Amino acid sequence: MAWLHWGGYIYGMAMTPNPNTPDVRRRRFRPIPVRMLVPNIITLLALCAGLTAIRLTIEGRIELALGAIVFAAALDGIDGRVARMIKGQSRFGAELDSLADFVNFGVAPGLILYFWKLHEMANVGWIAAMVFAISASLRLARFNVAIDDPNKPAYAENFFTGVPAPAGALCVLLPIYLALLGAPEISSRVIVFYVLAVAFLMVSRLPVFSGKKIGVRVPREMVLPVIVLVIFVIALLIAYPWHVLSAGTILFLCSLPFGFRSYREHERRAAQATAAASPAPAQPVPFAAPAPEATQDNRPQRLK
Length: 304
Known about the structure:
By secondary structure, the chain is mainly alpha-helical. The protein has a domain at about 35-145 and about 155-215 and about 235-270: Four Helix Bundle (Hemerythrin (Met), subunit A). Helix content is about 60%, strand content about 5%.
């Protein structure tokens, strides 16, 4: 827009951009490959499952709500792997995944627990549900920041800092699994403390084994056994969902000390390797007294 002063008035004149000038060329958006959309579609399907779990909880269908959360966790576990396999990673996908995880594994489990049992504790139960949801959001925010940490050691790639949000969501629902199995009723106070404990594990600095390096390559002779094992686990989950979820949650919680111990062992080995690779400090030279200077005798020959 060019401006002309004429007789005390200002007139605006729009200038048509010259297409031959590189500074004023219109930005042209390139088409997005389909492989960039596939991980985002999987993430949106997981978000739909989490929102559906909230609706099913309000309607009193707790079992279906738990199934929706498990389905969302399964989709969350494969969207990142699919993105890396087809090279469909993007900053947009990472942000969308974090927002979906907050709803699926922060808001939805908290509401499920509140409508199921925590409402008996009135405000205390609601505070526990909110603390869990907030802890999930903090955990996800810290994960996004830690991705770009240049000082992160190589061995830390196989560990999470704190319990990840999907695992925390499946763990915090353990009282419902046990209730569906016919276990003795658990007090609301105990459930409140358990929810707060899981929330603390999510925001803690506890190293948790991630398993990112598992399943990258499968030996040729193990392909068929692995396929059969996966089908067997899925069949068990469908036939005996509450047994499998309860056993898996308990095993995961029992494995946390071993993950911490493994991380410390890697940390100790890295410190020893660094100390061995660093050059030894130079030894200080002991102080030596200066040698006396030789004096010249300038007296005449006859006086010597």
